[in-house]
Amino acid sequence: ITAAVDAWARGAVALPKPWQPQKPVLPVEGRRNVLITSALPYVNNVPHLGNIIGCVLSADTFARYCRLRNWNTLYVCGTDEYGTATETKAVEEGLTPQEICNKYNAIHADIYRWFDISFDYFGRTTTPYQTTIAQDIFQRLLTRGFLQQDTVEQLRCEDCQRFLADRFVEGTCPFCSYEEARGDQCDKCGKLINAVELKNPQCKLCRGIPVVKPTQHLFLDLPKLEERLEAWLEQSWATGDWTANACYITRSWIRDGLKPRCITRDLKWGTPVPLDGFRDKVFYVWFDAPIGYLSITANYTDQWERWWKNPQQ
């Protein structure tokens, strides 16, 4: 309180001069460097107040606070554009997935400009950098033995001549009997679902009845990482600022044992898988989208690794 009274008495003239970072904003030796990202908004809808309040506005408030503290601050965000939700929206509107992305990226950018959100850069995930970085991470995982191949029973629509990704399937939830469950999750009971577990499944595109057929996919071998991850989590829980809810959910995953997780999908719209035998598939958006934070920064500056691979600063 005494310090606050003293600062107030001395007035604005005694304040340090505002920090003017170089353009592009890069880490600076000897300064506090802060990288801020908002959760990437999905591109198949018009953002509403809940979207903005949920992540964009809070990050913007923090970015403004950091700049007032004269910290060297970079705030990036962008639209998440790959995946089945984009394909379904494209079918609904009679456009291509790229046209849908172009349309809604522009809408998102205009709305955030209207709210004066102080992004240093607002990008998107459908860029060459996204492909380059995602495929590079994939190749590193492959080289280090963290990927495995397995056969998956998947629903195929013979009328549409395609395997159906989870969001192209609707049916009755096997847990709570909700009749409009998706092929990945039930919106009523919240449980995760494999599409083949749905009762009375239907193809969302033609309303035909799909059949179960085998197909090959690639999996991230999470059990190999479990021991190292658990040790890291214990340290992070002790020293970090995790919420009680985040700790509880993460502990439940570790307690139940990690399972291999599929990272490929039988879709056309996505980052291509650069491996023989899988070149007709794309990366599952859960694997691909988090890499968007890196690729959006890379589109802002070709020195993006100074932000993402530079813990000393």
TrEMBL record:
Q: Name one GO molecular function term.
A: ATP binding
Q: Where in the cell does this protein reside?
A: Cytoplasm
Known Gene3D superfamilies for this protein? HUPs, Methionyl-tRNA synthetase, Zn-domain
GO BP term, pick one:
methionyl-tRNA aminoacylation
Q: Name one GO cellular component term.
A: cytosol
Q: Which superkingdom does the taxonomy of this entry point to?
A: Eukaryota
Keyword set, alphabetical order: Aminoacyl-tRNA synthetase, ATP-binding, Cytoplasm, Ligase, Nucleotide-binding, Protein biosynthesis
Query: EC number(s) of the enzyme?
Result: 6.1.1.10
Methionyl/Leucyl tRNA synthetase domain residues:
34-311
One of its Pfam families is: tRNA-synt_1g
The UniProt entry's sequence similarity note says: Belongs to the class-I aminoacyl-tRNA synthetase family.
Protein name, as recorded: Methionine--tRNA ligase, cytoplasmic
Phylogenetic placement of the source organism: Eukaryota, Metazoa, Chordata, Craniata, Vertebrata
